[in-house]
Amino acid sequence: MVIVQRVVVRWAKQARGAAEATRRRGIPSAFELPPIPDAPLVIHDVLAEERTGYAPSSAVSSHTLPAQLNGLRFRLSGAAVEVVRTPTLAAYPTNRFPGQVFLLHFGENARYRANFRFSGYSTEWYYEQWTVNIAHGPWHRELFLREEIAYEKDERVSLYGGTRGMSSWGA
Fold first, then answer.
1. pLDDT higher than 50, residue 168
2. Cis peptide before 35 (omega within 30 of 0)
């Protein structure tokens, strides 16, 4: 079984200041898992939006493998699960090309972080920061809270220009 928990923090252009960035940094990068269906791939999406005061809401969905979800593709590679980055419709950054992010064997887990700026003809700019926790193994409620992360990939960038640095991620 592959269990994915994607924590999305979303905010609008007016919430770019330091005070809002401090609030966003207080949002956990992992949550307790709800009971999940028995399926090859289960997604637990958690959304914390600025417009709701960053109160998290969540949904669970199940899928077969291979599957392309949330900017990542999951497929079996022998007994392992290959996690590959896929293009997103983000306005920025535009240079995240497809490529393998992780190859997880049974019992291993990983964390992928990325952030984006979205815009469109009928959409105001908004920003998202993703923390994607991935496990190849059995479910337990505190899977992403207690387990040590075996692999981590951080592709966050400065969304507002300037140099890349921890203080500018999601600021």
1. no
2. no
